[in-house]
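ok so i was messing around last nite and threw this chain in just to see what happens. nothing serious, just curious
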Amino acid sequence: MEIVERFDAFFVDEIEAAERRLNIELRPHVKLYLIHLLKRLSEQRDFFYSEVVQDKPLGIVMLEALHKNIFEKLRDLKAVGDLSLIFSGLYPEHLTRRMVDIDYFIQIGRRSYHLLSDFYSGFKSKQDLFTLYSQLVTDFIRLIDVLTEISGELHFLDEMDVAKALRRWQSTRISKYREILERENVIPWDFQ
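result:
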């Protein structure tokens, strides 16, 4: 039990440290969702939804989900949103081997959470879920910003590839990529 409590404390500490470095504050429900997501990632070997994804592109999984029964649809859309968030924020180097980059995963993840919020919007008893998924859509980039900060602290992020950092900065405006560029004295014309 003590190990579980230490993991929870570790995730809370990392998220709050990233918030301080970025000078942002996540909404409480969104922060709790992120803590729970990180905890599940650390505890489950099958976190990456192997039964859902089955080596398919996440865009295909999302489209197929729209034609499934309600329970499978909700499970698959949540899987796509969660994986998009984890890959684009915590494990962006995983995307290097793909034909698409971080901006694709941001669009797919936000769309999946948006579809979930739309589903729950029609149910008065599910307004908390509607609110949560709506906030995840709104705060998706902030969550990736926080996860990218954590990824950098855990040395999951390749900070030596300046060209990749430039591409990712231009498409996402994630603070960590800007920091990499500034450290390397690269100032793109669209720095604001």
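not much to say yet. The chain has a mean pLDDT of 88.
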